[in-house]
Design goal:
- This protein has helices spanning about 60-70, 115-130, 130-135, 160-175, 190-200, 215-220; strands at about 1-5, 15-20, 25-35, 40-45, 45-55, 80-85, 90-95, 140-145, 150-155, 180-185, 205, 225-230, 235.
- The protein has about 240 residues and is α/β, with parallel strands linked by helices.
- The protein has a six-stranded mixed beta sheet, sandwiched between helices.
- A hairpin with a 5-residue loop joins strand 6 and strand 7 (about 90-95).
- Helix 4 packs parallel to helix 5.
- It is globular, with a radius of gyration of 19 Å.
Length: about 240
């Protein structure tokens, strides 16, 4: 597979001057760090497929992860080439199978893996230490990809969906066995987040926040171990296999 990334360095955080007011109407000028929104246009076989508002880092991983979690590919071997232009505003993907047929959900169940509660607590502790962009701006979601209790990568983005696509794309790009991995997310888990894990074949999805009822039903249907409300040294196991 050919891969090209010639993007210019984009600043993820900018500072602005603001006036802060308290209840007594005392005004104080201060400097605020704000997250910069960035739009990446992703073309598949020459057709504009997604316009993603994101943080301008881990862009190749974002593209890989989005391809997999949206079922445009089964694996990295389905990709002929990926390139991101110098400005970083356009990604061009060429797929080996140029057909447009994609299935919404895989037909089979995810094979369960053995996991340990201490792995979840470790991820929770790492999340509690904060992440670089969130520390500066308080404006990001984050996601962690772990294998057998060891964190492989942590990614941040404006939305939890992008952050999850980035860590999944990292695993795809660098040959991580996603079928033996787990993901920890900072955000709630509705069906579209559960679907991303199912599409990627990830057997364990953990989150600091709660799932929806529909996400739990979907996780049970497809064999996804769902561990949520993972904070304060506790978590809830919503599915077991």
């Amino acid at each position: 597979m050919n891969m090209s990334e010639r993007t210019m360095k984009k600043e993820c955080v900018e500072t602005v001057s603001v006036i802060q007011l308290d209840r007594s109407m005392t005004a104080e000028e201060r400097i605020s760090s704000l997250l910069s929104e960035y739009t990446l246009k992703i073309y598949i076989n020459g057709c504009l497929t997604w316009e993603v508002v994101c943080v301008a880092e881990h862009l190749i991983e974002l593209v890989f992860g989005r391809l997999l979690t949206e079922r445009r590919i089964q694996g990295i071997r389905d990709i002929e080439s990926v390139s991101i232009c110098e400005s970083g505003e356009r990604a061009d993907v060429v797929l080996k199978n140029r057909g447009s047929d994609v299935s919404f959900l895989p037909s089979g169940r995810i094979a369960p893996i053995a996991w340990k509660p201490e792995w979840i607590f470790r991820l929770e502790e790492e999340f509690a230490m904060d992440t670089p962009l969130h520390r500066q701006t308080s404006s990001t979601h984050s996601c962690f990809l772990a294998l057998k209790g060891e964190t492989l990568v942590q990614c941040e983005d404006i939305g939890r969906h992008n952050a999850m696509d980035k860590v999944i794309g990292y695993g795809l790009r660098y040959g991580v066995d996603l079928g033996q991995s787990m993901v920890y997310s900072s955000g709630r888990v509705p069906t579209d987040m559960a679907v991303k894990a199912i599409h990627a074949g990830i057997p364990v999805l953990a989150s600091k926040e709660s799932p929806t009822l529909e996400a739990v039903k979907l996780a049970k249907q497809y064999g996804l171990t769902l561990l949520c409300n993972a904070k304060g040294g506790k978590f809830c196991q919503y599915t077991r296999f």
